[in-house]
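To the structural biology subgroup,

Please find below the input and predicted structure for Orotidine 5'-phosphate decarboxylase, which we are adding to the shared reference set this quarter. The sequence is reproduced verbatim from the submission form. If anyone notices a discrepancy with their own records, reply to this email rather than editing the shared folder directly, so we keep one authoritative version.
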Amino acid sequence: MNFFDRLHDRIVAADSVVSVGLDPDPARLPEVVRDADLPRWQFNRRIIDATHEHAACYKPNAAFYEDPDGWRALRETIAYAHGKDVPVLLDAKRGDIGNTARQYATILDEDHGPAADAITVNPFLGRDSLEPFLQHEEKGVFVLGRTSNPGGADLQDLELASGEKLYERVVHLADLWNDNGNVGLVVGATAPEELEEIRELVPDIPFLVPGVGAQGGDAEAAVEYGLADGVGLVNSSRGIIFAGEDSEARGGSPEQFFEAAGQSAKRLETRLNQFR
Ligand SMILES: O=c1ccn([C@@H]2O[C@H](COP(=O)(O)O)[C@@H](O)[C@H]2O)c(=O)[nH]1
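Predicted structure (tokenized):
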């Protein structure tokens, strides 16, 4: 089954377009998991327990797992999320020359354990660098379009000789690369005007919209323009998973830490659903 069909089913089942970002910064993990075997996995397990009813998807960022224990934690996390019927989008922003890209894309294969259902990729090296990902027909491939960071404009807003902006060209190419119907776009909620414009350019491609929550992006625009036929994802990472930090600082219990994550996910779900 195609990733976007599966995502559609999950969005309907959970009545949510919330992507919960699993970015377990070791410096911010609560005391209760710090001395555990695989702290990041123990943290994610509790976050998933607290948030899965509100999650259309989990989005671990590979940056938080790129060491031997991290990869184990990631595999455990993917399996656990799947056990709750929630798909997993690995935010890895991959993109390299052909033979290297083919190796990177093996992360989507199930040969060595549970694998993510979708991945983010960087289009800077062009089509051949993304081909090995696109060929995984059943997996979602989210191409960076217009990112949410302040420096996103440095290159992405550059005007080409054709008069197009670079991000517009990327969006056009992503549409061309969508032979298997498995391409999505990453468009930040901090760039609401670009979100609206990109939606006009590609009415049928679902977006992953990061940047609400800690980055202060526009939640209404994220929903209004992020969804294609009701399918798309609005991500918050730190705003959900570390929502319990204040309670921990005030001496709250571990249960309260994770309850706060559940409440934060629910609040975001409710807010986004107002605009769906
Ligand atoms: O344009 C982009 C692309 C990816 N991200 C990633 O999303 C999360 C956002 O985390 P918050 O804590 O909700 O700010 C993180 O993994 C980023 O690397 C993005 O923010 N913007």
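Summary notes: The domain at 3-168+182-273 is CATH 3.20.20.70 (TIM Barrel). The radius of gyration is 18 Å.

Regards,
Lab coordination
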